[in-house]
């Protein structure tokens, strides 16, 4: 039986509001979130994780419960 939950790497998009003439600092090109996805429904579960190992740990906990 395959695992129901898996970790997906998603590019992070920061939305910012600026005024005319304001200068923004750059953002990292390789900034990603790690999300847990329910493969049966396609719905994301839980919060966004900065660390892939933490996301994998949470995913393993969810898979052991199902």
Automatic annotation (TrEMBL):
**Domain of life of the organism encoding this protein:** Bacteria
Q: What is this protein called?
A: Uncharacterized protein
């Amino acid at each position: 039986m395959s695992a129901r939950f898996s970790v997906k790497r998603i590019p992070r998009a920061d939305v910012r509001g600026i005024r005319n003439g304001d200068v923004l600092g750059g953002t990292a090109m390789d900034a990603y979130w790690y999300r847990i996805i329910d493969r049966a429904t396609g719905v994301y579960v839980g919060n966004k994780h900065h660390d892939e190992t933490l996301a994998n740990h949470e995913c393993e906990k969810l898979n052991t419960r199902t």
